[in-house]
Design a protein that fits this description.
mainly alpha, elongated
Amino acid sequence: MRVKALLRLRCPHCLEGEIFPRLLTMHENCPVCGIQYEREEGYFMMSIFIGYVLGGAAALPTILLLLWLQAGLWVHIVVVSLVLLLCSPFIFRYARAIWLHIDELIDPHSP
């Protein structure tokens, strides 16, 4: 159930309310249960590390494909940069959602 809510970018507490109303804009509170997403200043710093992992996961297949095709260094730089640029909104959204769900499992919100 939680994995489905995470994949659909839903609230980590009620698993129903959406976290992002638009591509890069987050709700401050869940529209369904009302919990505040950002517990304190700097709360989403840990999501940066999750974003690094997601970025690596997005770049690795591209790098391996380019190595197999024996592409040059500049082709690697340009293609991997484009892939990461195109994936960055999704990496941002899922890094924050993953962090919210991990934090909810470790330290659940009180109603």
